[in-house]
Specification:
The protein has 228 residues and is α+β, with helices and mostly antiparallel strands. It has one domain. Helix content is 18%, strand content 31%. It has 4 helices and 10 strands; from the N terminus they run αββββαβαβββαββ. The protein has a 6-stranded mixed beta sheet with strand order 3-4-6-7-10-9, with no helix packed on it. The chain has a 4-stranded antiparallel beta sheet with strand order 2-1-8-5. The N and C termini lie far apart (79 Å).
Length: 228
């Protein structure tokens, strides 16, 4: 017979390993990552108006950053493939993409009280911290056959009106509805000029097979009607 004490010692590492695995899978991404951590994690509910249509989208976003000890090496940050865009599909087939990063003031409010009215808080009139980090949204010609895209300024009178945007703190894993709203965008190569930063290519990072090719149109082109 194997002594009971020996069995306890033998199974202790296994129990610890299982416990570590449970904690790892239950925790948000980057929680135990030695290179990455995160500042905020939130559910973002957005509503826009396109002509006479009212459209809704919800994402779960984590704003991840490099850990301090490795920041000088990993200065590019920690890549997020989910939750970076609200996606809205209009009746005429166009898809509107709105970045989900909060302005500095909204993020502070979120961390303090767990929720924030983004539309009300992120206004340039309230000072530097309230300015939106992202200047542009994007419109793609059609969800089924994306052949072109164009940027539009979020703060200007463009093709959409943002009706509401509410962020709530969450522990849910990052996720979005792009795959259900416009799955072909995940198979699209977004062609840009000199500014990758101001293009959908910076946000649509998952998906390996590039079946479609969408070229950039000048800002303001084809925003009010479907581009064919």
């Amino acid at each position: 017979m194997i002594p009971e004490r020996v069995l306890e010692l033998a199974f202790a590492p296994l129990v610890l390993l299982i416990g570590f695995g449970v904690v790892y899978w239950a925790s948000p991404p980057t929680t135990l990552n030695p290179l990455c951590t995160y500042v905020s994690q939130y559910e973002l509910q957005g509503t826009i108006r396109v002509g006479g249509e009212v459209l809704h989208s919800t994402v779960y976003r984590q704003r991840s950053i490099s850990r301090r000890w490795v920041a000088t090496i990993n200065y590019g940050g920690c890549l997020q493939r989910y939750g970076t865009l609200l996606s809205f599909k209009a009746r005429d087939g166009r898809v509107f993409l709105v970045p989900t990063e909060l302005c500095g003031l909204a993020e502070r409010v979120l961390l303090d009280i767990g929720k924030v009215d983004v539309l009300r808080t992120c206004s340039a009139k309230l000072g530097k911290l309230s300015r939106q980090r992202e200047k542009y949204g994007y419109v793609v010609s059609t969800a089924d056959n994306p052949t072109s895209w164009s940027p539009f300024e979020l703060a200007a009178n463009g093709p959409i009106t943002i009706v509401s945007m509410l962020a709530t703190a969450t522990k849910k894993w990052p996720g979005d509805d792009l795959e259900s709203v416009a799955p072909n965008l995940l198979k699209t190569q977004f062609v840009f000029d000199s500014s990758w930063w101001n293009s959908p290519a910076r946000f649509v990072l998952r998906g390996e097979k590039r079946t479609f090719r969408a070229t950039k149109l000048d800002i303001g082109t084809g925003l009010r009607e479907t581009v064919r």
